[in-house]
Please model this.
Amino acid sequence: MTPEVRPGSEDSVKHNRLQYESSPYLLQHAGNPVDWYPWSEEAFEKARREDKPVFLSIGYSSCHWCHVMEEESFSQAGVAELLNASFIPVKVDREERPDVDQAYIAMSQRMTGSAGWPLNVIATPEGWPFYIGTYIPKESRPGMIGMIDLLPAVAGYWVDGNKRDELLESAKKIVDATQAMLTPEREGTFAPEVHARAVKELADAYDSVNGGFGVAPKFPTPTRLAYLLRSWRETGDTASLEMITVTLDHMRHGGIYDHVGSGFHRYSVDQSWSVPHFEKMLYDQAQLAEVYVDAYLATGNQAYADTARDVLNYVLQRLTGPNGAFYGTEDADSAGKEGVYYLWSGRQLASVLSEIELSVLLTAAGIMRDDTTGDEARFVLGLVNGTETVAAELEMSEQQVETNLRSALTRLREERLKREPPGLDDKISADWNGLAIAAFAKAGRALGAPDLIAAAERAAAFVLKELVSEEGRLLHSYRDGEASVPGMLEDYAFMVYGLLELYQASHQYTYLQSAVKLNADMLSLFWDQDKGGFFQTGSDAEQLVVRIKPSFDGALPSGNSAASMNCARIARLTSDPEMDEVVDRLFASLSVLVDRSPSLYTHLLLGHRLRYGDVFVTIVVGEADGEDTKALLNVLDGVYAPANLVVYVPTGEAHDDLLQMVPVARNHSLLDGHAGAYVCDREMCASPTSNPEELRALLLR
Model:
């Protein structure tokens, strides 16, 4: 048990209980005068014993408004006195405990229609919420109650018997309504027009001027882009392709992209991708790199390949530990201010760059955002004008523009390295590492970059060794030599996805073997035997107030969406009918939700296409170092064929385990002494070929 630090003791002057935690976010609050508990039975037991409500605050280390609230309220003695006197304060890192976070996010959405971070919840000692809000200022403002007014009011309600009954009844209604919302009563099938409706809904929300969907704040939503690209591949709908390319182009040129150091910021506060919210998340880098890779394969546009490579280079430089695993986030704040690491004044630019470099940069940037006023105005750098436009404007050659722009960005990068960097959350989570492993593996294949595949292998090796318990249970989070928290659905589903992509890239059977085993463990731990679909938490996990069954695809694919993709692919590879049955029941359990608004479930619909569309397994048989083998594998790596799975069977090597697991790969041989490719649609295979161009035609038919 965590050692207890009493408020008012010598230790509590500097630290509360959070000093014993490993989470960077919790450690940021370890010096608060608030008597914080981490999420624990100890905290809720004390709430029951002292008959006090729980004040639960959920955030994460790179959350700007979490920092604001910490400084404005939780660091202040007056607020701390109110919290410590009448509540049991509990602080949660949403990245360390996504199960807790998602349970209360779901209840917030049911109660208020929205949610966000910091998420502040006042709940019964059993964890049932009766107040939920996001950022709460210290002092009340018009239309927004402050902490110093809210806390005494709630405390008064709690000690008043009649008022407490109202709070308890409200909490019961919230929990019951949320659980009912999460578990639809009836099952069904997806309507025949579900894919057409999804595309139409996305088209209706599409911003044809700036790309992306909806208005500010604008998020990248890579799951939507991946779905539209697959839809274009299936239907030839050029409007879907345009939505993708316009969005990718505008994001890459706007301020949401870090043109000096690479990587995408989390979202844009405006509609034109100009001014970002500056934090950088591993999961955004991973998913966007994948989308840019797929767009490169689909269109041949080299700029998309370059963007993917630059983003993954950023991950290697800033978000990769010495053990090869990937860290979670870079903060939006540095030196106590949001975005200051990334902003430039006119005076700073002029002091760093030559006159011609400055002229080229400003012309390429177009209009930059004025962050303050006067001579020291701060700007977010975008590069909205292309080389040809800048060359015409400045009467220079395109080569001169490119040379000066490169040198300008190099100088700014060197200058920026002298600044205090943003904070780094160096937690390693299985789920986000799974997404990154997939991105590195896929990019390594498509770009002919073995170093990227090697990076994916290092991360996979770390997770499979250090984030697995002695009993073989996947764990969620790792930091400072310790892994903790039982893995959740997303940990299993995203790691299975990463391992399947790594198998495609490396052709190492052990990755496929690990993926199939983790997928089987996922079924055992998370599957809902009664109603189908997967719960977020395992049957062996702590029981929360509500048990989430994630379905909505937001900034990340839902666990059920990723699981549907994995099971559909494993069904094709292993010829296991049980996997098809799992996917069928999963879709049936979520069909009511999907029917309401298909565009909210785009990754799930990708799984639907894999289950019921044409899915190919291409078997390549050939010598490991043979040029003819390499030529066939290069074709498979270099085309956008999302419904194709690759199995490489090397000649002259023992591969009985592989053939036992993948029956469709059996009984294939060389063709007249040359490497051969067999493109198989379920149980039927096309005529084999040794000709790379014939193979390409088969894949693109």
Remarks:
- The domain at 428-608 is CATH 1.50.10.10 (Glycosyltransferase).
